[in-house]
Amino acid sequence: MNHVATNRKATTAGMRAILYVAALLVAIAGYQLFVLTEHTATYFAWTVKPPLTAAFLGAAYWGSFVLVLAAAREREWANARAGAMSALTFTCLTTVATLLHMDRFHFDSPATITQVATWAWMLVYWIVPPVLVALALHQSRRPGDDPPRTTALPRWLRVSLGLQGALLAWFGAMLFLVPEVGAQFWPWPLSPLTARAVAAWLLGMAVAATMVLRENDARRSLGPTASYAVVGALELVAVARYAFTAANAPNPTPLDWLHAGAWIYSTFMLTVFLVGALGFLVLRGTARAASAQRGMG
């Protein structure tokens, strides 16, 4: 029994360290975007308009905090893999988006706090992604095996994640590769930079969903499903904040409730929340039962 346990592939110290750093960084970015939503001209690396876009991005950052922190806490790589691969996806794509739109950033701002926010963003997205790639390659070469799977995912969860993941991947790819085209189908206006920033998160979520399906294990899917629920809930909060603000308000709603796009988006985020929350609750119970059964055995 001990021999089997020692042969399990452990999460490297370097990978856990960078994931802890990433968790701190996404928590800060989430605060800048979800709390200081209407002040990105001062407190963020670029001005994000409309504020609903900033709130969307902030919700995604805070949702990823749950995912990345859960992965960082895992000592066995099989349990951290889905979160780490999702983080690798959205950080690398956000770096590409940054490099493609350098003219949009606040390099010339006279405000010190804005300069700090801008250069902090640059340093993070110039340093973290290559380090994460190098650590992921090193991790893949580590000896050891995955532990036995506990319990497979229920069919309803696999089907739900498969459908949602496919939609996220398709729409995320369109927004990232041809942002002017993809933005026409988004329920509120997006610039090419914000379209690609949004796409990076959609594709990161798609990778998380795909990895959960690949792992097909209750224990390995707890972090991703919890994160999924948080993202869905916060995106709905973001919509509620700006759903019906008056046209003469400082930040009028960019959502047109007379068209289907706003309703489709809100409904989709509701399904993300429900699938994530119900999936997490079911899988947590399943994983605990399996752990107790192994302990009795």
The pLDDT mean sits at 93
Elements, N to C (H/E): HHHHHHHHHHH
What's the helical proportion of residues?
over 70%
How many domains in all? 1
SS field, number of helical segments: 11
Q: Give the percentage of residues in beta strands.
A: under 5%
Radius of gyration: 20 Å
Main beta sheet strand tally, sense and closure = none
Which class best fits the helix and strand makeup? mainly alpha
The total of beta strands comes to: 0
- Shape descriptor reads globular
Low-confidence stretches: 1-5
In whole angstroms, how far apart are the ends?
Answer: 12 Å
Describe the model.
The chain has one domain. The protein is built from eleven helices and no strands. The longest helix is centred in the last third of the chain and has 37 residues.
Features:
11 helices, single chain, mainly alpha, disordered N terminus, 297 residues
Q: How is this fold's topology laid out?
A:
Elements: H1 2-6, H2 13-35, H3 40-43, H4 51-72, H5 77-100, H6 112-140, H7 155-177, H8 179-182, H9 192-215, H10 222-242, H11 260-296
Short characterization:
By secondary structure, the chain is an all-alpha fold. It has helices at residues 2-6, 13-35, 40-43, 51-72, 77-100, 112-140, 155-177, 179-182, 192-215, 222-242, 260-296.
